[in-house]
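Q: Focus on the shape:
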Amino acid sequence: MDVEEIIKTLTPLERRVLPLLKKNNNFNSLVNASNLSETEVNRSLLWLQNKNLIKISEEVKESVVVGRNGEEYLKDGLPERRVLNVLSERNLSLRELTDHACLDEDELRVSLGILRKKDAIEIKDNVRLKDTGKKLLNLEFEEEKFLKKLPLNVKELDNKEIAVLSELKKRKNIIKIENLKTKTVYLTEFGRSILEKGLREDLLEGLTIDLLKSGKWKGKEFRHYNITSITPKIYGGRIHPQSLVIDKIKKIFLNLGFKEMKSPWVDTCFWCMDSMWIPQDHPSREVQDTFFLPYKGDIPNELSKKVADVHEHGGKTGSKGYGYKWNPEIAKQLILRTHTTATTYRYFHQKNIEYPAKYFSIGRVFRNESIDQTHLAEFHQVEGFVMDEDLTLRDLMGYIKEFYSKMGIYKIKFKPVYNPYTEPSMEAYGYNEQLGKWIELINSGVFRPESLEPYGINVPVIAWGLSVERLAMMLYKQKDIREVFGTLNDLNFLRTYNAKW
């Protein structure tokens, strides 16, 4: 398009922003000068860029910005300024200072230390303002000047500002360092030629009832529409990559003849721990590992007596049990379930399952974990068990290998471990090509007689629990578990992932 035609296509927003670029090329300055919202300025800049009238440069800079307390202090004054002001009226005790200056103990302690460094106050029976402090009443502190100038690029600070920054960092939530994206806009030569030609303000935006009634549209020219203009790309909805993995897992187990189980996210310690013979003093019950709720739930009366018996004496299994007094109040504590094995034991009790039987469940679980490359505090677990005569560890290994082979994973190795409720127990590890190491995929074992005796089960039960997210990491060739599930998903990955596995 030539200059005349481009001018005829400019929207009111573009005509308002374009002249401002002669003096303002910073995005924030444009917003202020135009009296438009950030959204409106962004929209107009996108249109102008599509017409090659401007170029936009974006740069991420480490910047000092105002923190939560800093925002309050900008409005009400720094603690040391408030102390200075109230002392200008009369001497006060420390307790009176706290009330009159509206400060907490930490703020008062810090502000008194700062004012003593400035030789502004004297503390004896009361706190008194010295002559030096009286001179400061009408002077602006460097910290106050600094806060008013924020945000500032860290690399552009002078020596005085660096010193102020260093002091403010020692104080709570006054400032913080963030990576801020700065946007700079430049006129192109074509854009300058458009401005030199002049923008038309006489173009009509559209035909209205008033224009039709008055006839004022006659002899006027309407703004032209550029039907070749680039429009923002629209991304259609996609199934979450994690959901595809869950659907695949369900199909595998259903095709292998398993039935699906379900149970609640919030459950009692009884179902999550006691019912499967986990002792009440086991480390996994600690707050460091479990999310406790401040409530209690109900537990089945008759079954809890049988569970208490195996905990205390081993029941009729020949075991000595744990040899302690089982406490039903501990079992009633509500938690966010730490594993889906609670589902299995609920079904043992509620469904009165008869062998041969094969069941699985897929559900969300919660653990008070430190989040890293292979750990989440909230994730999905697949639980499964097979109940039949003459089952052995060899059968369990066969089921695990069969499942992972159907997911396209063949590098599997096993390692013996300890679980309170299974014996023997083992973990299966899969080789993650992206991480270049073996990672734990599944925990499994043969349920102990003590964990089965309260339910009247006297045949072998093999069982396992696996993390969906760690499996998804391998399938999608990701190095970080946070890329496949959670709030830190990369949006580009969600839009472009390949599910050919």
Observations:
- The longest strand covers residues 54-66.
- The mean pLDDT is 89.
- The radius of gyration is 35 Å.
- Residues 252 and 403 are 7 Å apart (CA to CA).
